[in-house]
Structure formats: structure tokens, C-alpha cells
Amino acid sequence: MSCELKAKDRTGVINPIFTCQPAGAQYVSIGIKDCIGIVHGGQGCVMFVRLLISQHLKESFEIASSSVHEDGAVFGALDRVEQAVDVLLMRYPHVKVIPIITTCSTEVIGDDVDGVVRKLNEGLLQEKYAGREVHLIPIHTPSFVGSMISGYDVAVRDIVKYFARKGEPNGKINLITGWVNPGDVTALKHLLQAMDIDATVLFEIEDFDSPLMPSGNTVSHGNTTIADLVDTANASATLALNRYEGAKAARYLEESFQVPAMVGPTPIGIRNTDTFLHNLKKLTGKPIPPSLVRERGIAVDALTDLVHMFLADKKVAIYGNPDLVVGLAEFCLDLEMKPVLLLLGDDNATYKSDPRIQALQQQVDYRMEIITNADLWEMEKRITDGELELDLILGHSKGRFTAIDNQIPMVRVGFPTYDRAGHYRHPVVGYAGAIWLAEQMANTLFTDMEYKKNKEWILNVW
């Protein structure tokens, strides 16, 4: 038996796993304090992405659009950028950071966004907003290449590249979280605090689990400051948790400012969280405290309660962001489950050289498929044709109808999740995330056993 890595064999896409590059750049922008991004394209390029993010996080936040119409698509639309920047600065006096995020239409017509940024810096900002701190950052994310994953990676690099300045060493590490939930940020900061490590967390979305206060509702915003971004060049090291969501920035800081970079693994499950903590120890010299050893023991005990009787040998399909998918697959293998289908939603040529995927190819002793440039039809077709028998599906809400139609239990994990309450609040990283994921999988299987009257007697004696 083998683990096969291959691209989908169709040109068209049926029910895509990902959306496009500008979505990733927008998700980065919401993590920066005093920042509102302008998406240079049609209104839909903001509206649909903002809808996905707000459905997922259940919060209100700000992203702007240059609102390009038919005439701009034909004759050019740089004047819309100039107007958008002016209106944004007038309406929001606190805004200091404005990423200008390109889209497929404005890249195709050749709008010189870098040129209009220079023009605005020398003109509008000097004439009308003199003395005000404003940073215009062009971010090129054409939708006809890559995906929201590469868009996230590019935006993190470009924003760090714009701000980073060499100064005095700050003794911190840069922690680039990748595309995570507020609950993940809380869990990661807990691990850092337990190890007494001072870190700059990029990009900081913990406060998107926003309170509703007596004074009224709040608009959610990120907490990564300009000072944080400038100081990334002075860190003792950078740890990017994900290979495809932040590694470009880590490598840039290493090449330009000699800040040592370490990439991954995504701390999903016991094994990868152990490695994460040992990497922190290696980078900082700080010991792993007994409190985290105890947390690990609690997590191992919780997993032991479930693995042999309920999770072992269960066949799983997983789809979503590549670092998440690979991390979940590794975790499932550690739980003696069998990930049989992994769907990666873009055509990144470097997947074949990913050491984690190579390890799966060398170690898996049953038939596993890893499909790149995949869509959700790849999973549905295999199920309906009888090629694939599944006990469980792991993925975001876009695959819910495949699960419902084929009566396969499903755990929602990843972005976007909009048909389950509060998932953004619960981590999938760290020891707490390992417990939450394993118990979600077990409880989902328990419910399925009850509905299908399939060995539900086991639950009476457990």
C-alpha cells in the first residue's frame, strides 16, 4: 500500500476548498492595530470575503474597497485608489496603516499600485495630511494565481518587509501564527507565558472574540502595533508555525536582518506541541515548566480514554488549509486513525518537497491519497462511486452537504466555519487543542452511533 501525491485530473472546479489571494491578505490586515485595508477591485472582492470572515468570527470589523466599475476595468482605476485613501483617512482619524490589496481585475489591466502609492506619499499625504502618520503598503495578490493561503503568506512578508528596521536587540521572539482563530492565539500565548517567553505575536487577532460592553458594541480590531512590526528586525529569532502561512516573512527577516528563522511544525496534537515547546526551549534557553508537563499528562490521559475503543482504525478525509490538513493528519495517525484522503486546495508546486508529506509517503502502510489543486467534488465523487468508505470528515463548513447527503459524521475545523457555534473560541493547537479535537471527533462519532443504532450499546458500558 502507498501514500500517493497527485493533482486532480480535471480542469474545472466544483465546490472549491479555498477562495482567492486577496482574502488571505485581508485576513492579515485585520490583525493590525489602526489598520484598514483597501481592496483595489470590485466591491464583491471585499463583500464576499468580509462576509466569510464575519460569518466565521461572528464579529464586526472594517475593510474598504476602491469599488472599481466597468469604466475603471477598461481605462484603469488608479483614481479610485486615490479617492479611497482620501475618504478613508477623512472618515477614520485613527487609521495609520493602509494595505492596498490588488485583485485579478486590477492586476490584469496593469494598474500601477506602487506608482500611485509614491504619488500619494508625495502629494495627498504631504498636502492634506501633513504631520499625520500614514503607511500605504502595496500588496500584490492577483486572484488568477495562488489561493488565499499564498495571499496570506505574501501579505505577511510585504507588511513585515515594509516596517522592519534594525535597532537594538529586544530579546523577544517573533511568533507568526498563520491563519488561526482567536482561541488559538489565546492558547499559544498561554504556552509562551508558561515558559516565561516574551514574544511578538503576528498577526494578533485574539480580540476578535470581542466583548459586548455596557457602553455599546465594539468593532473588532487586531493588536499587532506598528512598533511591534518595526521591532521584528530586532528579535532573537522568528518561529513561523506554518510552512505556507508566514514562512516567507520569517525567511525575509533571516536574510535581511540575520534573525534566525524556524518554520513549523504546526503545533496540532501531542507530538507537534512537544516539538513546538522544544523549539522554544532551543531558541530561548528557557526550560519547559512542570505546569506544561502536567498539561501534557492531562491531554495524554484524555486521548487514552478514547483512542483504542472509539478512534482507532477510523477512516478519515481531511480538507482545508494545507498546514492544518497535514497537522490534523499527523494527529489522526497518532490516534491510530487512518486518514485516507487529504485535499489541498491549490497547485503549490512545493508540496512534493514538504518533509511532512514525504514522511507520510514513507510511513503510511495503507492506501492514502493526497490531492493537490483539489476541490470538494474529489471527495464527493469517491464517496458516491463507492471508491471511498469514510467514518469521519474533518473540514470547514463548505463540505457540510457532502457529509449530510452521504450520512457521514463531520467535525467542523478550519476556515470558514459558520454552521456551528463558538468554534473560533476553541483552539486546535497545543495540548488544550488536542483534547478539544479528540473529544469533538469522539462525540461526533457517538452521536452518529446513536442515530444509526450502530454499536450504541458500547456507550452504555463505557
Query: What oligomeric state do the depicted chains represent?
Result: single chain
Q: What proportion strand?
A: 5-15%
- Number-wise, the strands total 14
**The biggest beta sheet, please?**
6 strands, parallel
Coarse structural class: alpha/beta
Instruction: Round the mean pLDDT to the nearest integer and report it.
Output: 92
Distance between the termini: 34 Å
Low-confidence segments, ≥5 residues, pLDDT <50?
Answer: none
Strand order of the largest sheet: 1-12-11-10-13-14
- Rg: 23 Å
Number of helices: 20
Helix content: 40-55%
Principal-axis shape equals: globular
Structure report:
By secondary structure, the protein is α/β, with parallel strands linked by helices. It is built from 20 helices and 14 strands. It is 45% helix and 13% strand. The strands form three sheets. Strands 1-12-11-10-13-14 form a six-stranded parallel β-sheet. Strand 13 (392-395), helix 18 (400-405) and strand 14 form a beta-alpha-beta unit. Helix 1 (21-29) packs across helix 2 (44-57), helix 8 (148-163) packs parallel to helix 11 (247-257) and helix 13 (290-304) runs parallel beside helix 19. The longest helix has 23 residues, at 430-452.
Features:
single chain; 462 residues; alpha/beta; six-stranded parallel beta sheet; four-stranded parallel beta sheet; 20 helices; 14 strands
Task: Give a quick rundown of the structure.
This protein is α/β, with parallel strands linked by helices and 462 residues long. It is 45% helix and 13% strand.
Topology:
Layout: E1 3-7, H1 21-29, E2 38-40, H2 44-57, E3 64-65, H3 70-75, H4 78-91, E4 97-102, H5 104-108, H6 113-122, H7 124-127, E5 135-139, H8 148-163, E6 173-176, H9 182-194, E7 199-202, H10 226-230, E8 237-240, H11 247-257, E9 261-263, H12 269-284, H13 290-304, H14 307-311, E10 315-320, H15 322-334, E11 338-344, H16 355-363, E12 368-372, H17 377-384, E13 392-395, H18 400-405, E14 410-412, H19 430-452, H20 457-461
Parallel strand pairs: 1-12, 2-3, 2-4, 4-5, 6-7, 6-8, 8-9, 10-11, 10-13, 11-12, 13-14
Helix pairs in contact: 1-2, 1-8, 8-11, 12-15, 12-19, 13-19
